Amino acid sequence: MKKTTTSGPAIVSRLRRVEGRHNALVKELRAAFAHGELTPDGYCAIEGMRILEEAIRSGLKFKAVFFRASAENRAERLLPQLAAHVETLLLPDKLFASAVPSETPQGVAALVRCRTFKAEDVLAKSQTGPLLAIAGVQDPGNLGTILRSAEAFGAGGVLLGEGTVSPFNSKVVRASAGSVFRLPIVQAKLPGILDRMRELGLRLIATSSHKGTALDQATLTGPLAIFIGSEGAGLPRDLLAEMTEIVAIPHSPTVESLNAGVAASILLYEAARQGAHHRDTETQRNQ
Asked: What is the pLDDT of residue 206?
């Protein structure tokens, strides 16, 4: 997003004071946070300095930025990074708190337009890295962790099945540390795209705590989709029956199972490690 050179008093002059809870932008922010979904015109509610700066770094379009009156000083840091046409509002502390339901508010929030994708867009990314297929992960912190690891370890994209928390939930956005802004992510009905995955040559991999190929014996190179099930029930039986391979992550028998975010992160790391080793081997062979 284009930066301005605004500073000092000029920054303060950009802030439009809003006192009423029925202001259209304040109502839109409140509703977006409450529903944890995109607004009808495609905007997502985010909050906190770090997340807003990640959105700027990711090149997202801002509709409006909201500052709490007692955190007005944050505008001096943030506004020079925003295009001049972006609405910037200063809200009384009580009004800001009514719209931003954070347990640890930092006094700044925004409406940003997140990139949207179709299932075929994400499937096309399977040649650049493993795909993740998430079935029923409902904890925002878990999904955010998975998205952060997906970007860190080079996943091609993410498919979110039915029953999975929205990626636009503010807690997911925060836990992803901005990865949600950059990853190709789509909400889809997973059973309906399994055949398409096979047509593209993807191996379908699921995890298990107790049975399957041990992680250090599993081959996680080439086009593949890693399926992660819900925190309690795991992967639904109908999906489990469609998998090419079940991979078991060894752990202490005193622990019943691993957190969904941890399990996904371990598989993504191992896939990245094996992929790097495979590429190094091919390079040496061709020299």
From this structure: 94
**Longest Cα separation, the chain:** 69
What pLDDT score was predicted for residue 280? 62
Picking from 149, 158, 263, the residue whose alpha carbon sits closest to that of residue 207 is 263
Q: Are strands 185-187 and 157-160 parallel, antiparallel or unpaired?
A: parallel
Q: Does domain 9-113 have CATH number 3.30.1330.30?
A: yes
Q: Find the length of the chain.
A: 287
The answer to whether 138 and 162 have CB atoms below 8 angstroms apart is no
Q: What is the mean pLDDT of the chain?
A: 90
pTM: 0.89
Which residues make up the CATH 3.40.1280.10 domain(s) of the chain?
119-286
Which residue ranges does the chain devote to CATH 3.30.1330.30? 9-113
* pLDDT at position 287: 65
| DSSP codes of every residue in 74-141 | HHHHHGGGS-TTSEEEEE-HHHHHHH---SS--SEEEEEE-----HHHHHGGGGTS-EEEE-S---HH
What are 24-82's pLDDT values in tens digits? 999 999 999 999 999 999 999 999 999 999 999 999 999 999 999 999 999 888 999 99
Paired residues of 158 in beta bridges: 132, 185
**CA distances (Å), 4 to each of 81, 82, 84, 262, in order?**
6, 7, 7, 41
CATH number of 119-286: 3.40.1280.10
CA atoms within 13 A on the CB side of 71: 21
